[in-house]
Amino acid sequence: MARPAQTSQKRQKLIPVVARAFAELGYRRLTTAELARRCNLRENVLYRLWPDKKAMFLAAIDYVFDRSVETWQKLLKDMPDRKTAAQRLLAYEAGHLGEFGLHRIVFAGLSESDDPEIRQALVRMYSHFQTFICEQVETHRDGGGKSPEAALAAWAIIGLGTVTNIGRELGIVSAADRRKLMEQVGQFLLDGINAGRRK
């Protein structure tokens, strides 16, 4: 039996493949046989890494947040700018939101939210996103500290991203309009309703 550290390393190596498979086929349609094929493993070896398909799906939900924050942190480190971190992240997402299809994992999870474990994984993921975005909004607003308005703005930004991805999936919002939505409405949410009064 593999040592826990080796198991963890193998999971980390394979989770992008697992997540991509769930993003493409969803939770119900994807079989563990197909997952094993994509991971280039026998099915019994895959089960040594995760006990069942649901555990693999839960790991994929966690990966959605981890991958996003990893991307954002690299962007902020590699691209210093006069704009605030929140503005840089918003500009990045305006051009790249949904390009990896990870939102499909979330959409698949929402259709399974009557399962307590999947529901909890989604709650955790959304809470992490909201906390991270709220911190960026607060810092953007001159580090004004925690405020209910910034917390609500963070939820609204998450909602904006969701609507934008729905528009992408259904082909009802063009790429140019998705960009405008993220840039213009996102900037309004970042600045907040009191922005005019502060100037």
Could you provide a short overview of the structure?
By secondary structure, the protein is an all-alpha fold. The chain contains 10 helices and no strands. The longest helix is centred in the N-terminal third of the chain and has 26 residues, at 4-29.
Q: How would you describe this protein?
A:
The protein is mainly α and 199 residues long. The chain has one domain: Orthogonal Bundle (Tetracycline Repressor, domain 2). The protein is 78% helix and 0% strand. It has helices at residues 4-29, 32-39, 43-49, 53-78, 85-96, 103-110, 116-140, 148-170, 175-191, 195-198. It is globular, with a radius of gyration of 19 Å. The model has no long low-confidence stretch (mean pLDDT 91).
List strands and helices in order, with pairings.
Elements: H1 4-29, H2 32-39, H3 43-49, H4 53-78, H5 85-96, H6 103-110, H7 116-140, H8 148-170, H9 175-191, H10 195-198
